[in-house]
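Quick one, T. Sequence first:
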Amino acid sequence: MVDLESGISSNGSYEASDITVLEGLDPVRARPGMYIGSTGSTGLHHLVWEVVDNAVDEAMAGFCTRIDVTILEDGGCRVSDNGRGIPVDPHPQYPDKSAAELVLTTLHAGGKFGGSGYKVSGGLHGVGVSVVNALSTRLVLEVDRDSKHYMAEFKDGGQITQPLRQSGAAPRGRRGTTVTFWPDGTIFEEVDFRSQTILERLQVMAFLNKGLEIAYKDTRPGREQSVTYKYNGGVVDFVKYLNASKEPLFKKVCTLVGAEEDQEVEVALQWNTGYHESLYSFANGISTVEGGMHEEGFKKALTNVINKYARSRGILKDKDDNLTGEDIREGLTAIVSVKLRDPQFEGQTKAKLGNVSIRSLVEKSTNEKLAEWLEENPREGNQICQKAVLASRARVAARQARELTRRKSALDGAGLPGKLVDCSSRDARETEVFIVEGNSAGGSAKDARDPRTQAILPIRGKILNVEKARVDKILKNTEIQALVSAVGAGVADDFDLSKIRYNKVIILADADVDGSHIRTLLLTFFFRQMKEMVEAGHVYAAQPPLYSTMVGKNRVYFLDDAAKDRFMAENPTHKGEFQRLKGLGEMDFGELRETTMDPTKRSLLQITVEQAAMADEVCSILMGDDVEQRRRFIQSNAKDVRFLDI
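Structure tokens:
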């Protein structure tokens, strides 16, 4: 037996025979998290992204105009494109294998490491489709090329069951690649694809690739749907879409384009009357959620150009300080999309772009093109500057409010809100805080908790809608002050994830309309002011049951109508009258612990930011001023499990 940490046998020997060599795709199955991030829902959907990214690369190369993504009735996923088709001829270095088989069975094999296959691509590391094969129980490859149809099949992590062979003529002169795969349930915690997760990603890809048609179809019984995306305006349409749920400061969308040698940049930007910055960057179609050189170049140039313009127009006087980048970007919605031949991503997840050359191109293009746009659009330029000046004044007020909050904390010792019922453990890794609305519910939760690891923070009524307020006003709100103090990691620009006092922040509200509104207000606050905490998976919504019934001598609880209906379908002879639970305050502490707070029995909904741009849009719709748009959104998403919490 070998100790996994040291590699040394338990009997003390350490010989050549103790060294394990993982060959082929074995490393992927042994350590899937290294390649796809996790074996949970995020990793499962990463398989789809890897295959779709390859098809998008064909589109960026100019050879693909349509991509079809289909979830099959049995839960498999099929991705088909009308690109050139993976090469099927023998590889020069491995003459006994076709290039297609090599790509599917060998790590770091692909057409993106030089050569003339791709000028730009998102699937850079060459581990994409081979990783999908490694983590699937079955994968079928179909290639239509040179009027011929080819097929190959693999099973159990990449074992070839049918080598690539020609199986007839390509249908109706079709060309392209089709990959169908079934994720391995022994690897993944779940193998159920979520349509909404996939649709969000596909829509972003369609926005970033002007004119590319992406069609999605779910054929699973009871979940059938079909959606097609195609945007001839590209990133301009993307900005309009994101700002549709807000109130644009002006109708025009500013576009900035620049190119040199093997790289190019396209930026679309428009301000709205809100207070939140919505800047999203992409490199070769890959979302760079941690930014990078392209974002740095854009931000620097934007700040420089707006300050120069404000001074030239007398909006900023000689005695006035320059506007900061944060002032200028208040209410900004912007897409920064770059394409380059050799992108330097940080890691397989490609979260940050490191190419210095692209920073220079983006900065130069923004400096030149934005200055021209402002001169040609003086009315809009004046509106941008005036909004930034107001933001600057609010920033000073917010700083004073933060300083006041810090002084209060210093005077109060630990600085914790008086109504917080804290837990005894000081190990943040094992603790959690329940944010509970109402005194009666707070009392029940206090009695139901595990006092060692569970804390209770009662709040009164509905907190401030942060979607409609600047930071200075937010920080003066009593309930928000209590939240900030309890979490202990600051707020907005001062937020430091390493200082959070609890591993889980759990929203505990009634399963009714008022409770849903409270959850939405709190989630909007966390998304806007403590976004890193949401991104890191620390925010949850408790799911108290809506119904209960007696089965024999035992009381059984049901989360919602769907759960109750499933029970009745499985137990058609059940005669109990179901009891609708009206609120947390009406539960005794034993019932609350049993159904909602006991970690071994409860059901928590983890709040994640899978697509930041789309999450931004959801917050704006749900908490904005457009009542009709909010009503339509809720009606169309009423059955989507992703929105159970809102």
